[in-house]
């Protein structure tokens, strides 16, 4: 509660005023640093590495509150704080945490994660980026990479892939193939400035989430030292699954934030706007938009927080429900934003009332961090195993 | 130097208050409650004194229902070292009145022995502006209200307070111990950081029952009726400044 109040107050004074302006511009670096000062960037990271040592529920609260004002900024926050910071905090070695987390938690570094590729998204095991043991190494032929690895390939749709539009972000967790088997995938920390690591296509002209920078990352014979291998070689799948769970909850929380804001806006507007001599909130058609939105928002909220309360960041096991949370909340958020625009009519279609921006942002949750179809696939796969619901 | 900061739980400043249907009070059910904004200024100032190594310990005190503990946790997250909670279910906006609160706070002062008491100049629910002065009166301590600037001498024996009045800035110098009440201009309160919110959970809060404090809590004023303010009448648009002046004169307003 205290966390929510603090973040909400911060959002009202510092995040909200910049949201529309940066929607037309770019990533707000200064605001990002302020989040670092408040301890938001390392919300789930260990305290000794500059984090705040909080749990999944806290992370969900922060996402909902930030997204109620600026979903795009929140998306960049998610890529940094969940996909990089939390991922490394849970899966990295003590030395890796000590090396990368302090700067990431303070906001000095803007980081992200690379999983999708130009040719593989939902089909994540179809990735083709490779990491092979560097030539001349003392490592064995199986590629133990004693002296490092050489990365080749590219990653697409990378949030925080660039910050300024010229260079890459500061550090990324990159998944790459280290063997022939479909599950031979390893995680590497790739740092800005490594030879051969460069910014590819900048993703411009996105429908929404415009204050969040998206780009392609390109790896051409990038020499990655062995100490940048996260976990065991070939051990990426487990950490990937672990981190996908919190990622989906956090994305669900963005939809919650969007929905809550849209309900606030259409509720207020419907009381003020008069048509045929009465406030439009007295008409059944408008009442239906508002009432259904509220009920769906609360259903999504209850689901999200109940799963968050039981999500242990150090392991996995909530896959089915984190998929289902995001499946439900993503479409809920989009529908609520759509109803808000309908209630506001012409005023909803232009930027001044925020709804237009939230409406565009809301769609992303049906695509990013797992498409709806990926969630369908995963949910049915898990339900097949379950057969009978507990 | 030990600083005691009094913090009050009130209806959040952004909430549009509603009168209860029975007209006895404003509605508090399902209404967002927060720390009184002026108390945040008092708390912030105390933390700054501690950061400047002038204060060694900050004790936060709150009088109110069990949920006032959340307000104390906020104070602890901002930087107080420990809390004192005086529990009462009396409505803090009209039933529990300034004199009773001042007397309760005096018992805390007797126990904590602060060198400086910082409070908000008023709470935004009752808007009485009385508790600070009454506490100073009961203690026989010097007081400065509406503080816009506070300086503690290196000797830690006296303070200089600037207070903004309608006629200008007044500067007061007084010996410690003293009571100082904060205005909004005193500082910009910080947000509690996440690590500090976590630490605050482990800081101690001592709980006392207000009824057992040996203090007369009976209200001195009785609220007979609470009503909404009259709705604002529609305004009129005038063509020019001259028209405005003429109209104000015609209405006898200037």
From TrEMBL, chain A:
InterPro entries: Acyl-CoA_DH_CS, Acyl-CoA_Oxase/DH_mid-dom, Acyl-CoA_Oxase/DH_mid-dom_sf, AcylCo_DH-like_C, AcylCo_DH/oxidase_C, AcylCoA_DH/ox_N, AcylCoA_DH/ox_N_sf, AcylCoA_DH/oxidase_NM_dom_sf. It comes from the Eukaryota. Residues 113-222 form the Acyl-CoA oxidase/dehydrogenase middle domain. Transmembrane segments: none annotated. One of its GO terms (molecular function) is flavin adenine dinucleotide binding. One of its GO terms (biological process) is L-leucine catabolic process. It catalyses: (2S)-2-methylbutanoyl-CoA + oxidized [electron-transfer flavoprotein] + H(+) = (2E)-2-methylbut-2-enoyl-CoA + reduced [electron-transfer flavoprotein]. Its cofactor is FAD. Keywords: FAD, Flavoprotein, Oxidoreductase. Residues 240-381 form the Acyl-CoA dehydrogenase/oxidase C-terminal domain. Residues 2-108 form the Acyl-CoA dehydrogenase/oxidase N-terminal domain. Belongs to the acyl-CoA dehydrogenase family. PANTHER family: ACYL-COA DEHYDROGENASE, ISOVALERYL-COA DEHYDROGENASE, MITOCHONDRIAL-RELATED. This is Isovaleryl-CoA dehydrogenase. The lineage of its organism: Eukaryota, Sar, Stramenopiles, Ochrophyta, PX clade.
UniProtKB/TrEMBL annotation, chain B:
The keyword Transmembrane helix does not apply. It holds the Pfam family ETF. The keyword Electron transport applies. Keywords: Electron transport, Mitochondrion, Transport. GO terms for cellular component: mitochondrial matrix. InterPro entries: ETF_a/b_N (IPR014730), ETF_b (IPR012255), ETF_beta_N (IPR033948), Rossmann-like_a/b/a_fold (IPR014729). GO terms for biological process: carboxylic acid catabolic process. Residues 23-217 form the Electron transfer flavoprotein alpha/beta-subunit N-terminal domain. Its main location: mitochondrion. It is found in: Mitochondrion matrix. One of its GO terms (molecular function) is electron transfer activity. PANTHER family: ELECTRON TRANSFER FLAVOPROTEIN BETA-SUBUNIT (PTHR21294), ELECTRON TRANSFER FLAVOPROTEIN SUBUNIT BETA (PTHR21294:SF8). The electron transfer flavoprotein serves as a specific electron acceptor for several dehydrogenases, including five acyl-CoA dehydrogenases, glutaryl-CoA and sarcosine dehydrogenase. It transfers the electrons to the main mitochondrial respiratory chain via ETF-ubiquinone oxidoreductase (ETF dehydrogenase). Belongs to the ETF beta-subunit/FixA family. Heterodimer of an alpha and a beta subunit. This is Electron transfer flavoprotein subunit beta. It comes from Tribonema minus.
